[in-house]
Amino acid sequence: MNNDKLIIGGREFDSRFILGSGKYSLNLIEAAVKDAGAEIITLAVRRANTKDRENILDYIPKGVTLLPNTSGARNAEEAVRIARLARELGCGDFVKVEIMRDSKYLLPDNQETVKATEILAKEGFVVMPYMYPDLNIARDLVNAGAAAVMPLASPIGSNKGLATKDFIQILIDEIDLPIIVDAGIGKPSQACEAMEMGAAAIMANTALATAGNLPLMAQAFRQAIEAGRKAYLAGLGRVLTRGASASDPLTGFLRN
Amino acid sequence: MENKFFVDSEFLSEAALERKHRLETDPTFRKNHMEYMPGMEKIESDVCDDVLAHMNSYDYSKYTAKDVKAALEHETCSIEDFKALLSPAAEPFLEQMAQRARLETSKHFGNTVYLFTPLYIANYCENYCVYCGFNCYNHINRMKLSTEQIEHEMKVIADSGMEEILILTGESRAKSDIQYIGEACKTARKYFRMVGLEIYPVNTDEYRYLHECGADYVTVFQETYDADRYEQLHLLGHKRIWPYRFDAQERALRGGMRGVAFSALLGLADFRKDALASALHVYYLQRKYPHAEMSLSCPRLRPIINNENINPLDVHEKQLCQVLCAYRIFLPFVGITVSSRESAEFRNGIVKIAATKVSAGVSTGIGDHESKYSGKETEDTQGDEQFEIDDNRSLTKMYKDISDEGLQPVLNDYLYV
């Protein structure tokens, strides 16, 4: 268990909980990072401030890896420009590509995401694309040089959990990169379930931001993610889906 | 039409007064409000027909408590549900609506509240809109800021910490032409992360030019979606042309703007129908331009210089809150802006329920930010205000008050790309 590291872009992480920072008060970020045990925190470049007041960078503890995102981008070109700006601002080489051509559901545009991933990977970024879970696109992202794949569980902010469960499972089974479940995880139990399935990590924001007690919810998520990871590593036991199974083997008649 | 809107100024010539009275009393003296003037671009769009079909057939008296309860139980709010939530039958359910609205707001916006301030750069106007302080027959100090003055005002505002600005003008193409507004946008880009415009509606190529100058968001208030009522209130000028105004947001999006904002001025006509039409205007345009950002405002009539009697009629705070909750439940993803027309108490309450953007450090006059922000007396002339505001809080005070409510004030959430 001690050697169970999450490796993204050659960097090792002990925590499998990635925190979003977009929806809650800045002075709670530090507490959230501490209680969640998170080592990666996302940052909307469009929110990053050049002025003194409320500079989000001041609230992020040292040693935490910043994951700037390209939110606000409507196509690959805009995402690339935002990623380059993040690097200029000193946010490092990690980037979460988010491209939304839809203001209502904020669903990612998979085609544009592949394009942006390819350009940014060539420029040396560690690219973590947010995507709608589609196997063919996930393969394209691998070929484009992505460092991880971040499929959505359900519409962003919805707290609805693993609505795309079967398709995320396919990505976990078929894609050799870390699959990080992003968007829609509303409860620790849902995070745990995704981890049991073999997800490499969980990203959450709204679930924490809208909790009654943010630090306590951060702890709950941390424990749920750890529990799910342990269960996955242990190998889930037999799960009965309907009724009891026959105790006599069906193949007992076979002689040799 | 209520006579209380009409005020004669002693400074008007006899000929001007005669023309004003004739406009007010003789509909045949007024231009056809549905006919485009020369130079106005006409675009092909079904959005208007869709919105009007719903508005014209909306009979809010037929909705009952049962419809409202059903609407609140549905996970997604249909147009029919929205109509129930806007109806008088929903008034007893205001608290339940607020609870649901808060849930939707937090899903989409978390705890964030965006801050901005308006900057009026000119108050010349060629329109006669009977309820507006800038109307061409109202005797007020007119002014247009020079390039240097605009830059000075922007510096003062930027120094206060503000990062989003909304540039406004009176509606005079002659006094405030596109070039002039474009230059203001270029200056604003130096000081602000986000530049919005609330100016007279223009053609697509002009919106494109203004976008290239740095503007990224366009606000146009339809005032009322009831074209017949509109005709009685907007008696003269380009603004009289109702359909050209209706299509302004669509032209702005075609011109490359990131987002557009909408509103009716509640209190001019039947506010329930106007609220329905405003939200459906957003709804149908979002379906057509899914990438665009959309926001709704909810201004109510306010007193103006020389006419204290203008007020929001039957739209009390309860009704306003009902409208805002209904907007939020029907359109969970849209920004909702509540301006300083409303009181500090109302704004403190509504940001916890439905609003996602408020103004601070507001002046609706021209060239008076330095005196308002620093208390410094100035010998420069200042232009009069469009309407009286209620909430006078500075950015610092607003920032603190929002933080104290447990919310996160956000000064910028935009990148101009």
In short:
The complex is a heterodimer of chains A (about 260) and B (about 425). Chain A has about 260 residues and is an alpha/beta fold.
Could you describe the 3D structure shown?
The complex is a heterodimer of chains A (256) and B (417). Chain A has 256 residues and is α/β, with parallel strands linked by helices. Chain A is 35% helix and 15% strand. Chain A has a five-stranded parallel sheet with strand order 5-4-3-10-9. In chain A, strands 6-7-8 form a three-stranded parallel sheet. In chain A, helix 1 links the parallel strand 3 (17-19) and strand 4 (40-44). In chain A, helix 3 runs parallel beside helix 4 (135-144). The radius of gyration of chain A is 19 Å and the shape is globular. The termini of chain A are far apart. Chain B is α/β, with parallel strands linked by helices. Chain B is built from 16 helices and eleven strands. Chain B has an eight-stranded parallel beta barrel, surrounded by six helices. Chain B has a two-stranded antiparallel ribbon with strand order 2-6. In chain B, strand 3, helix 7 (178-191) and strand 4 form a beta-alpha-beta unit. In chain B, helix 3 (65-73) crosses helix 4, helix 4 packs antiparallel against helix 12 (271-288) and helix 6 (147-159) packs parallel to helix 7 (178-191). Chain B is globular and about 60 Å long. Classes of the chains: A alpha/beta (256), B alpha/beta (417). Chain A binds chain B through residues 22-26, 44-47, 49, 51, 53-54, 72-74, 78, 81-82, 85, 100-106, 157-159, 205-206, 209-210, and chain B through 106-112, 161, 163, 286, 290-294, 333, 399, 403, 406-415, 417.
